[in-house]
Amino acid sequence: MTTFEPAPGQVPPADAVHPGSSTPEAPTSVSRLNETIRDFVQKWGAVWVEGEITSWNVRGGNVFGRLKDLSSDASLSFRLWSSTRQRIPADLKSGDHVVACVKSEFYVKTGDFSFIVSGMKHVGLGEQLAQLERLRVKLRTEGLFDASRKRPLPFLPHRIGLITGERSDAEKDVHRNAELRWPAVSFRTVHVAVQGERCAPETIAALQTLDADPDVDVIVIARGGGDPQTLLGFSDEKLLRAVAAASTPVVSAIGHENDHPLLDDVADLRASTPTDAAKRIVPDVAEQRALVRQLRSRAGSRLTQRVGHDIAQLQQLRSRPVLRDPETMLTTRAQEVWFHASRGRDIVDRRVDAAMRTTAELRASLRALSPAATLSRGYAIAHLADGVIVRDAAQAPAGAGVTVTVGRGSFTAESQGETAESAAAGLPEGAI
């Protein structure tokens, strides 16, 4: 068997089990071994230890809890009797960073080892709470808490995705209150662990499953209340970033009004309780029916008022003289039209007469100036065979054929050449 080995520099009890003092043929008893361990442990005395409270369960006025090392996963269990509890701060709870005066105790009958707390006080925020504050600042700086990135919830979701614990009160509250408000509401529920190490990864997987479902219009993450330690999974950084990256609006319904995991800040809507979430994601059918009746009444009143107003305007227009007797306007304007038409005819006639006289004068002037008038007075025009007008007698030598045009017609002749008589008589040059 395994024997008790004292630490270096320590003296074991007189009846302690020493190496080699027991054999398979002569083993020691369990009680003797436990007594040896108890006697050794009792010599340790009290010691002050620093750590973080990770469990704080009150039973019958006594506290049974665990204290975790700040820099490793090491932890110890402790017991705090009700008499001691009256002498320590009353606000101690899970997540607090404390120093405690503990004395080791080994129970011979059961072989259990524990520490009895004789004093405990705050040191500051627990390491886990300090980490949460640092994460809160980091995510706020990145903009994950900004209201501008929050997605609006649909007025009436076709299907609600619910992530919660199996057979939990939170699931019952969400279903019951949502169905009371809108009986036709539909759910797709995924059960996950809502505390412990499995909480964050299972919630992330459920979120991704529901986010990929095109029928799910809004996702609710819900659980009942609890101490800060049990709600730590809903402040996990991976979960928070998965919620921020989801395309479907996410509602956080964790704990009670005073509980505030970081999921509340990243989610598109924070509900104070699962019941509050149900009330905020679906409308109340009774309220909506009352609203429809009210809107119908208002629409009917406005329509009646508008029709009455339009009828009054129409009657007012019909009472005007121009619409009451439309022919009056035509009769009064007929004389004006006749006057303008008559005046127009007179103006046109005068202008036509003036134009005719001007045309006659121009025609007379053209006639007086035209070659035909000159020819009618006895003059003639002589043309050579190539059509050149004879202007000089020298142009038509003797024997040259010429065409002579007179007032009526033309004839051909043969030139006799220039004569002295024609020049002396003052006849035009080129005359025959």
Mean pLDDT: 84
The tally of beta strands, per DSSP, is 13
User: What is the CATH domain class of one domain?
Assistant: Alpha Beta
Class by SSE composition: alpha/beta
Radius of gyration: 61 Å
Search tags:
EC 3.1.11.6, five-stranded mixed barrel, hydrolase, 432 residues, Rossmann fold, five-stranded parallel beta sheet, single chain, alpha/beta
Please, could you describe this protein's structure?
The protein has 13 helices and 13 strands. The protein has 432 residues and is α/β, with parallel strands linked by helices. A five-stranded mixed β-barrel has the order 1-2-3-5-4. It has a five-stranded parallel β-sheet with strand order 7-6-8-9-10, sandwiched between helices. The protein has a three-stranded antiparallel β-sheet with strand order 11-12-13, with no helix packed on it. Helix 4 (169-181) packs parallel to helix 8 (274-281). The longest helix is centred in the C-terminal third of the chain and has 44 residues, at 326-369. The radius of gyration is 61 Å and the shape is elongated. Residues 1-11 have low confidence and may be disordered.
Helix-strand layout with pairing:
Layout: H1 30-42, E1 46-59, E2 62-68, E3 75-80, H2 82-85, E4 96-107, E5 112-125, H3 127-142, E6 160-164, H4 169-181, E7 187-191, H5 199-211, E8 218-223, H6 237-245, E9 250-254, H7 263-266, E10 269-270, H8 274-281, H9 285-318, H10 321-324, H11 326-369, H12 371-376, E11 381-384, E12 401-405, E13 410-414, H13 420-424
Parallel strand pairs: 3-5, 6-7, 6-8, 8-9, 9-10
Antiparallel strand pairs: 1-2, 1-4, 2-3, 4-5, 11-12, 12-13
